[in-house]
Amino acid sequence: MEQSTVRIISECYVTPQHVSDQSKQPYYLTTWDLVMLSMQYIQKGLLYTKPENSCEENLIKNVLDRLKQSLSISLVHFYPLSGRLVTKIEENPKSHFVFVDCNNSPGAKFIHAAVDLSVSDIVSPTYVPLVVQSFFDHDRAINYDSHTRPLLSIQVTELVDGVFIGCSMNHVLGDGATFWHFFNTLSEIFQAQGDTKMKISRPPVLEKWFPEGHGPLLNLPFTNQDEFITRFEAPELLERMFHFSAKSIAKLKERANTESNTTKISSFQSLSAFVWRSITKARHFPNETVTGCRLGTNNRSRLEPALPPDYFGNSVQTVRAVTTAGELLDHNLGWAAWKLHQAVVNHTDKQVRGFVNGWLDSPFTYQIAQLFDPQSVMFGSSPRFNMYENEFGLGKGLMLRSGYAHKVDGKVSSYPGREGGGSVDLEICLSPSSMKALESDEEFMSVVSADVF
Q1: Could you give phi then psi for residue 356, rounded to 5 degrees?
Q2: Rounded-to-integer distance, Cα 188 and Cα 204, Å
Q3: 8 Å CB contact between 133 and 146
Q4: 341-369 b/e with 16+ CB inside 10 Å = b?
Q5: Residue ranges of domains in the chain, CATH in brackets
Q6: d(CA 281, CA 277)
Q7: CB 297 within 8 A of CB 317
C-alpha cells in the first residue's frame, strides 16, 4: 500500500468572489503571528466515503465545482488567506518587516488529486499510513515560504471509494481556532449554496490586536532570513490514533479529582496527565530526567478586556508543567493533573501581556527543534473545535487526519471523537520503541476504547 502515490489531476487558483477596499490595504501581523514564521503550516482534513448508488463522475464534479465556488465566497470574508507574505528589509537600522499583500497574489490554491487506495487502506492500519501526508499541499514547507507559496490550499483527493478533503493554512495567518473557523465557514457556505443573500453565522474579526503604543508594523531586527528561519526534518516516528470514550475520560476525571481532593481538575487535564505519565513510563527515562507537558492555550478569553471568540489570527501560547520522570511516576494521576490545572489557571492576562512585551523587547521566532524536546509531551489542537459537522455533499466525515507538519516525538494532537458526547481522539507520535512500549502498557490500553465509525 505504501507504494501507492497520489496523482495530481488539476491545479488552479481561487480568488475572492469580489474585492473589498479593505483587502487592498496591507494586512499587518502581530507578535503572536510573527513568532510562527519558522513553523510549519496547519494541515488537517477529513475522509469521507462516497455515497452508494451515486454517479461517481457527476458526484466528484459537483463536489469540486461547489467547493471552488464556496472557497471563492469564503475568501471574501477571510480575504487575508488569499494573499502572500511580503518582506521589506532595511539595513540601517537593521529591520525586517513582514506583512500580507492581497493585491499581488494569484489567490488560494485548489488541487484535485487521486490515489488508488480504498477507505479501508487508510482507516484499517494500526499506524497512520505515510501516504496520508500526500493528501495535503505544502508538505514540509515552513510559513516563511509563503512569499512564493499560497497562504491557503485545499486539496481534494479521490480514493476508490472515498474522498479526502485536506486544508493547509499558513500558521502565521492563524491558529487552530482560526483554522477551524475558516473550515466551518467553508462548509456552511457549501451547504447553503444557491442562497445568494446568505450571511455567514460567524464573521471573522479581522481587526488586529496590538498592545498600546505598538503596531501595526512590527520590526524583526534582522536583515537576513537565516537569522530567524530554520527547517526541520522529523525523526523516524510511528503515528497512531487512540480513541477515548466519554465514559473512560469521566473515570479519569473522577480519579484525578479524588486523588487531589478537589473538584477543579477538568476532563482534558485529567486525560492529558494520564497520557503524559503513560508516555513517560514508555520512554524508560532515568528518574532524574526532567520532563514537561505543554498544553496549547487560547489567549482570547484570557486578555482583559477579552478578544472576541472569532478574532482572526494567532492568539495562542503554551502552558507547561515540569517535573522529573521519577517524581511524575512516583506520584499518582491526581498529582500530575493538578500540576497541569495550576499551569492553566495561572495563565492570566498578566502572563499573556508579559509574553507580548518580552517579544517586543527582544523579537524572536519559534524554532521547532527548540520548542519540542524529546523528553516532554506537547498537546496541540483541541477537542472543542467543530470538526465533524463539516460536510461537503458526502455526508458526515469518517475520520480526521493531519499532514507532516509539526510531527515530533511526543507530539499529541487532540480531536473530538466522531460520536461526540465528550469522546476524544488523540493522534500520538512517538519513536518506534516508545510506541511499542506504550502499546504494551496494560493500564494505558485499558483506558483506550475501540474506534467508532
Answers
A1: -60, -45
A2: 14
A3: no
A4: bebbeebeeeebeeebeebbeebbbbebe
A5: 7-227 (3.30.559.10), 238-447 (3.30.559.10)
A6: 6
A7: yes
- 3-state SS, 339-382, equals HHHHHHHCCCHHHHHHHHHHHHHCCCCCCHHHHCCCCCEEEEEC
Residue 149, all three cell numbers: 507559496
Beta bridge partners of 11: 111
Peptide bond into 93 cis (omega under 30): yes
Side chain identity at residue 412, one-letter code: V
CA–CA distance, 41 with 39 (Å, rounded to integer): 7
- Return the number of other C-beta atoms located less than 10 Å from residue 185's C-beta: 22
pLDDT reported for residue 196: 67
For residue 263, give the C-alpha cell.
473538584
- Residue 194's pLDDT band (cuts 50, 70, 90): low
State mean pLDDT over 262-273: 98
- Whole-angstrom Cα distance, residue 105 to residue 405? 24
pLDDT in tens, 333-353: 999 999 999 999 999 999 999
3-class DSSP state for residue 95?
A: strand
What pLDDT, on a 0 to 100 scale, did the predictor assign at position 452?
55
267-283 helix and 432-439 helix, angle to the nearest 10 degrees: 120
Helix, coil or strand: residue 426: strand
DSSP 451: -
Distance, in Å, from the CA atom of 381 to the CA atom of 399, rounded to the nearest integer, reads 15
C-alpha cell at 221: 531586527
Q: For the beta carbon of residue 453, count every other beta carbon within 10 angstroms.
A: 10
pLDDT tens track for 105-137: 999 999 999 999 999 999 999 999 999 999 999
pLDDT of residue 55: 73
How do residues 153-191 score in pLDDT, each as one tens digit? Answer: 999 999 999 999 999 999 999 999 999 999 999 999 999
Task: Name the one residue in this structure whose C-alpha cell is 507530539.
Answer: 411
